[in-house]
Amino acid sequence: MKKVLLTILACIVVAGAGAVGFIYSGIYDVAAIHPDHPLIAWALHETSERAVAARLRGIDVPSGLDKPDVIKAGGKLFGENCVVCHGGPGLKPTNIAQGLTPPPPNLYRATRKPRMDEMFWFIQNGVKMTAMPGFAKNLSDEQMWSVAAYLRTAPGMTPQVFSEDTGIPTAAANAPAAAH
């Protein structure tokens, strides 16, 4: 039994020393312009997915989030706080968005299936090791829910609706209608 415990202790010490050596070696490239190694990207993504899922319990989605004024308020807040990274239909990606690793998700992808509790959690808490900030210190719960309500309408949104909801002009929304 003593030999087994010493072996386990030796493995822990070696693993710890290896981790410290890795950290201090500078081997891992932290430059944002270089994407993570696929194994690292997978590990970070899976860790994030599991961590968020474990924290969604207990989030109660309030009623009334389908009201047009709530959605419109969320669109305005999205335009003020989120568009610089997440962009929108009819907008070219900003220099900031193009420099982010990992890149921000396309919230307007037509096949996206947004979950209200999950969107609220992301808006409230942000995500470490990404550029996604948490807004809990700057926005009220009501404001964060309105952004989630707006984002529920985002999949497949047209540039014109985006422009109307956010107040941000897009080239596509301002283009004259094509003559038939």
Q: What does this protein structure show overall?
A:
This protein is mostly helical. The chain has two domains: 1-30; 38-168, Cytochrome c-like domain (Cytochrome Bc1 Complex, Chain D, domain 2), CATH 1.10.760. 54% of the residues lie in helices and 0% in strands. The protein has helices at 2-25, 38-55, 68-81, 83-86, 95-98, 116-125, 141-152, 159-166, 171-174.
Which characteristics define this entry?
elongated; 180 residues; 0% strand; Cytochrome Bc1 Complex, Chain D, domain 2; mainly alpha; single chain
What would you say about this model in short?
This protein is mainly alpha-helical and 180 residues long. It is built from nine helices and no strands.
**What's the Cα radius of gyration?**
22 Å
Report helical residue fraction: 40-55%
Q: Give the name of the CATH architecture of the largest domain.
A: Orthogonal Bundle
The CATH homologous superfamily name of the largest domain equals Cytochrome c-like domain
Cα distance spanning the termini:
85 Å
Structural domain count: 2
CATH topology of the largest domain: Cytochrome Bc1 Complex, Chain D, domain 2
What is the overall shape? elongated
Q: Low-confidence stretches at least 5 residues in length (pLDDT < 50)?
A: none
Structural class: mainly alpha
State the CATH class of the largest domain: Mainly Alpha
State the assembly state of the protein chains: single chain
Beta strands, count: 0
State which percent range the strand residues make up. Answer: under 5%
Mean pLDDT, to the nearest integer, reads 92
Tally of helical runs: 9
